[in-house]
Amino acid sequence: MIRAALFSLSVAASAFLAGVAAADTGDVQAGEKVFQKCSGCHQIGKGAEHRIGPHLNGLFGRPAASYDDFRYSKSFQRAGAGGLEWHADTLDVFLENPRSMASATRMSFRGIKDADDRANLIAYLRTFSDNPADIPEADPTATSLSHDLDPTILALVGDPEYGEYLSGECTTCHQSSGSDDGIPSITLWPEEDFVLAMHAYKNKQRNHPVMQMMAGRLGDEEIAALAAYFARLED
Amino acid sequence: MTLNRRTFLGTSAAAAASISAPALLADGHGKPRVVVIGGGSGGATAARYIAKDSKGAIDVTLVEPSRTYFTCYFSNLYLGGFKEMDDLGHTYGNLAAAYGINVVHDWAVDVDRDSKTVSLAGGATLPYDKLILSPGIDFVDGAVKGWSLAYQNAMPHAYKAGSQTELLKSQIMNLPEGGVFAMVAPPNPYRCPPGPYERISMIAYQLKQNNPTAKIIVADPKPKFSKMGLFQEGWANHYEGMVDWIGADFGGGNVSVDPANMTVTIDGEETSVDACNVIPAMKAGKIADMAGVTDGNWAPVNAADMSSKADADVHVLGDSSSQGDMPKSGFSANSQAKVCANAVRGALTGSKVFPAKFSNTCWSLISANDGVKVGATYEATPEKIAKVDGFISQTGEDSATRKATYEESEGWYSGIVSDMFG
């Protein structure tokens, strides 16, 4: 019953979504051109220093107004104290209309209305912050779009072959033999329990950062495929 | 072109309709042949998944010089006294017996991409339809002034697990009372971003019990490193005053060593040391270079299937590859291997090819039952493997959480080695 409800929800939701896997945040070279609007006040890159505005190296993941050696407006200091951090999403809002986030910022810039220009600029700025290959906890460089599929492809639901492929992501930790050496067994569960557990992680109702992350990008039919595969897995 | 699910379904449906016989690419010689070079996290996983999922339709040969493979992951825990060397060793018998993989213990010494053959040191030549290179890392010559592989006994790297790890441990255990241990940390990118710092933690743990007045100096060419806040918190809590980390901002990158006299010079200041772990700059395993698929130190690959940008019939996995945002780790190599295996099988037998998904988690142990982790998920974009989501342990977590994280890492270890070796 519950699974049926979940799937009808996903049909409704996925009707609006394309089945694309991932999107880059933008074009770095195009963003470098957009940055010319900023470079009168902000430096970036090797040897960059604070000028009229603070330098923008290492921007991603940094709290707003966090340099001791730069004088920020009160407005920005309040935003920083209130927990504002710079990530692709907050920068996008800020760059569209700076005063929407810091009403009395001294940055006299009207904002960038074009979403592609902003995306390209953000991609360019991102190249001057930590690289996730070196610092795995560094900010993402792309956004994950939904993995929910078009309803016409829902025939994939419960496809054990797809489940077997997807299970490769699980069996790095959960042993396919069902052995439990510190990470619980996930084999031979009733499909409904499996689906419920995965959705609870996906919706962050169950606490476990690895599982929330793994389940978070699985579409409903992918969870069903995994449930179908593991339910039948005999070692 | 971004591979999206709709395209893949369309093409695989078309493929399924038009192909009835398997062995699409057998090239008139019977079963299609896959040669995998390197039996670590990438190579063993790829070999096992291709053999397992093709159910005998593909001939898989795994070339690996070592009869026993020692995992780099958990080798720091051996230094700390939490694991025995035997716990880290794995053999290839099951891959041969249970999966029918032709395991060849030999060195691959050349790859001829025109004739699609691999030459082995023992004289044999292996033909392939698809070649998978997963040779791990080698060191950049001259990366640390005064050090070369000729000095690896005086100043071990211990960054390929095995006898080097045992040597380093004996040097730690024999450090004179109140002695000085130095580490020269590597520049980015390198295998296992938190590895050097977990190693510092484990050495400090060992010394705190047996030699509590000993000191540890780290010369680091980087201004920051993975899990830096977590490690520094842990060092202050568990090993106060013991660890002196000298980052790039304080001259940590300006370093030379003298293995004959056991000195380390950091930013012009010479220090006598009793043991020194030199972890040099790294590059792709040599065979990747010989195969002509490297550009600079690493081998660029396409994110969708880990195929070399230089040759669609050669795939490069793990540390040797240059793919984008994934850290060089055993977990990453294992994840990439499964995407690669699915694509290789699809190309050779017409089986369904599903879209790439990648993930990684790195656990590190700071002290007994004080485990931390960092993880992320990644997807293939036209340019690279891109990070899309992630998490990291928090500073100030309670001891129950840290203990649970350590126990989880032990579970992961059992999981990944059974995923590799069956």
UniProtKB/TrEMBL annotation, chain A:
<feature type="signal peptide">
    <location>
        <begin position="1"/>
        <end position="23"/>
    </location>
</feature>
<keyword id="KW-0249">Electron transport</keyword>
<dbReference type="GO" id="GO:0009055">
    <property type="term" value="F:electron transfer activity"/>
</dbReference>
<feature type="domain" description="Cytochrome c">
    <location>
        <begin position="26"/>
        <end position="129"/>
    </location>
</feature>
<keyword id="KW-0813">Transport</keyword>
<keyword id="KW-0408">Iron</keyword>
<keyword id="KW-0479">Metal-binding</keyword>
<dbReference type="Pfam" id="PF00034">
    <property type="entry name" value="Cytochrom_C"/>
</dbReference>
<dbReference type="InterPro" id="IPR002327">
    <property type="entry name" value="Cyt_c_1A/1B"/>
</dbReference>
<feature type="domain" description="Cytochrome c">
    <location>
        <begin position="158"/>
        <end position="234"/>
    </location>
</feature>
<dbReference type="GO" id="GO:0046872">
    <property type="term" value="F:metal ion binding"/>
</dbReference>
<dbReference type="InterPro" id="IPR036909">
    <property type="entry name" value="Cyt_c-like_dom_sf"/>
</dbReference>
<keyword id="KW-0732">Signal</keyword>
<dbReference type="GO" id="GO:0020037">
    <property type="term" value="F:heme binding"/>
</dbReference>
<dbReference type="InterPro" id="IPR009056">
    <property type="entry name" value="Cyt_c-like_dom"/>
</dbReference>
<protein>
    <submittedName>
        <fullName>C-type cytochrome</fullName>
    </submittedName>
</protein>
<keyword id="KW-0349">Heme</keyword>
TrEMBL record, chain B:
<dbReference type="InterPro" id="IPR015323">
    <property type="entry name" value="FlavoCytC_S_DH_flav-bd"/>
</dbReference>
<dbReference type="InterPro" id="IPR016156">
    <property type="entry name" value="FAD/NAD-linked_Rdtase_dimer_sf"/>
</dbReference>
<keyword id="KW-0285">Flavoprotein</keyword>
<dbReference type="GO" id="GO:0016491">
    <property type="term" value="F:oxidoreductase activity"/>
</dbReference>
<dbReference type="InterPro" id="IPR049386">
    <property type="entry name" value="FCSD_central"/>
</dbReference>
<dbReference type="InterPro" id="IPR037092">
    <property type="entry name" value="FlavoCytC_S_DH_flav-bd_sf"/>
</dbReference>
<dbReference type="InterPro" id="IPR006311">
    <property type="entry name" value="TAT_signal"/>
</dbReference>
<protein>
    <submittedName>
        <fullName>FAD-dependent oxidoreductase</fullName>
    </submittedName>
</protein>
<dbReference type="Pfam" id="PF07992">
    <property type="entry name" value="Pyr_redox_2"/>
</dbReference>
<dbReference type="Pfam" id="PF21706">
    <property type="entry name" value="FCSD_central"/>
</dbReference>
<dbReference type="InterPro" id="IPR052541">
    <property type="entry name" value="SQRD"/>
</dbReference>
<dbReference type="Pfam" id="PF09242">
    <property type="entry name" value="FCSD-flav_bind"/>
</dbReference>
<feature type="domain" description="FAD/NAD(P)-binding">
    <location>
        <begin position="33"/>
        <end position="137"/>
    </location>
</feature>
<feature type="domain" description="Sulfide dehydrogenase [flavocytochrome c] flavoprotein chain central">
    <location>
        <begin position="165"/>
        <end position="280"/>
    </location>
</feature>
<feature type="signal peptide">
    <location>
        <begin position="1"/>
        <end position="25"/>
    </location>
</feature>
<dbReference type="GO" id="GO:0050660">
    <property type="term" value="F:flavin adenine dinucleotide binding"/>
</dbReference>
<keyword id="KW-0732">Signal</keyword>
<feature type="domain" description="Flavocytochrome c sulphide dehydrogenase flavin-binding">
    <location>
        <begin position="356"/>
        <end position="421"/>
    </location>
</feature>
<keyword id="KW-0274">FAD</keyword>
<dbReference type="InterPro" id="IPR036188">
    <property type="entry name" value="FAD/NAD-bd_sf"/>
</dbReference>
<dbReference type="InterPro" id="IPR023753">
    <property type="entry name" value="FAD/NAD-binding_dom"/>
</dbReference>
